[in-house]
Write a structure and sequence with these properties.
The chain has about 240 residues and is mainly β. It contains no helices and 22 strands. The strands form 4 sheets. Strands 1-20-17-22-15-13-14 form a 7-stranded mixed sheet, with no helix packed on it. It has a 7-stranded antiparallel sheet with strand order 2-3-4-11-6-9-12, with no helix packed on it. Strand 2 and strand 3 form a beta hairpin. The two termini are about 15 Å apart. The mean pLDDT is about 95.
């Protein structure tokens, strides 16, 4: 196996967008933020950490040929789309929308007093021209355990993503150690939603990310109470 490598993406170095109603941090280039050194990682194209003020949101807008995953961290997010789907996404819920040949959708914070924080994730599909589709599911995030929330084959109750990717989520208590063993020639991206963890001798806090290539295992140790992390296993 080739030499294992880790590349850090500190939260403080992400792109920032402040629109009053929306505060967003971009792990990779997005909209008005462009950094040729951070255009994505494998098929993972966007991780936006969005905070939307009460009664505000994204008006109806188009997407195509992208797998869009929304993970609500706190508050609630109301979703409507041209597929006829209308739903409210809450903490523990994960939503997947395949934009495919084209879809219109809107996202709105229906609360009158509570901000909503959610991660907007874009993954490039394995092929263009897919039929648009939508899934949403609530996941029971047991402590100190990897939970598969999205995968190519939709196994174990996970959402189906049209790409060679697995998305895992975990709540890790202080001192708990979670091991992850990828298959050979895989690439991993770890994103800390909240709390702090230690991996490969590095402390990662809220908003930090790290890329791992040619790793035969990943050991993630909880540092702060109920750290919340996402792990992308990419082809």
């Amino acid at each position: 196996m080739a030499q294992s490598t880790m590349t850090l993406r500190p939260a403080a170095e992400r792109g920032a967008a402040e629109h009053g109603w929306l505060s967003s941090r971009h792990t990779f280039s997005f909209a008005g933020y462009y950094d040729p050194e951070h255009m994505g990682f494998r098929s993972l194209r966007v991780i936006n950490d969005d905070r939307v003020q009460p009664g505000q949101g994204f008006g109806t807008h188009p997407h195509r040929d992208m797998e869009i995953i929304s993970v609500v961290v706190s508050g609630a997010l109301e979703h409507k789309d041209s597929l006829g789907t209308g739903s409210v996404i809450r903490p523990g819920d994960v939503q997947r929308m395949s934009a495919g040949t084209g879809v219109l959708h809107s996202e709105f914070n229906p609360s009158v007093d509570e901000e909503v924080r959610f991660l907007q994730i874009w993954i490039e599909p394995e092929r263009t021209g897919l039929e648009p589709s939508y899934e949403q599911r609530a996941f029971d995030l047991e402590a100190d355990r990897w939970i598969l929330v999205a995968s190519r084959d939709g196994r174990d109750g996970s959402l189906t993503v049209h790409q060679d990717v697995e998305l895992w989520r975990a709540h890790i208590g202080p001192g708990a150690v979670l091991e992850y063993r990828p298959k050979e020639a895989r690439h991993l991206w770890l994103q800390v939603i909240s709390g702090a963890v230690e991996v490969a001798g590095q402390r990662l806090g809220e908003g930090d990310g790290a890329a791992f290539s040619n790793s035969d295992r990943l050991m993630v140790t909880g540092v702060e109470n109920a750290s919340d992390v996402l792990l992308f296993d990419l082809g």
